[in-house]
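User: C-alpha cells for this complex, please. No commentary.
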Amino acid sequence: MPELIPVLDSEDIHRMTAAMAERLSSDYEGKEVLLVGVLKGAFLFLADLVRLISIPVKIDFVRASSYGSGTETKGCVQLETHRDIDVAGKHVLIVEDIVDTGLTLQCMVSHFQSLGAASVKVCTLLDKKARRRVPLEADYVCHAVDDGFLVGYGLDYDESYRELPGIYHLKF
Ligand code: IMP
Ligand code: MG
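Assistant:
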C-alpha cells in the first residue's frame, strides 16, 4: 500500500483559498469574469473559492484528458466542454488544482484566447514548478510544491483519494 504523507490540512487550504479569494475579488472588481474549473481535480478548490469571492462571477467547466491511470502526462491534451463556452469579451480565469508540466494549461490558455476572451489568466492551488516542460507561469498560485505525486482535496491517483479534505504526498 502506498503511504500518505501530509502536505496541507484543511485549515491551511482554507487560509490560502480565503487569501486568494480576496486578491481575485480586488483584481477583478468591475469586470465580467468567468471562472473555468478544470475537471475533475479542481472541483473542490473552485467550489470553496467562489464561496469566498465577494464579486459576482460566472462559472463553467472544462475537462482535459491526457493522464490515463499513470502519474505522467502523455503529451497533447484533449479539451472537452459540455457545450461551447461563450468567452467572447469576458475575463477568463482558469482554475486548476495543480500545474505540473504546464501542457494542459498551455493548450487551454490558447484555446480561450482564440475564442476572443478579453483576458485569460490562471489560478492554481498548487504549483509544481520544477517539472515545467513549457514556459507557462500561473498568474495566481496558492502554494508551491516540490516534485512528488500529490493526492486529496480533488486530486486523484487513478480516481482514488479525491475525497480527502487535505493534500498528501503519495509515496509508493
Ligand atoms: P500538466 O499538463 O502536466 O501541467 O498536468 C496538469 C494536470 O495533471 C493537473 O490538472 C492534474 O489533474 C494532473 N496532475 C499533475 N500532477 C499531479 C499530482 O501530483 N497529483 C494529481 N494530479 C496531478
Ligand atoms: Mg487537473
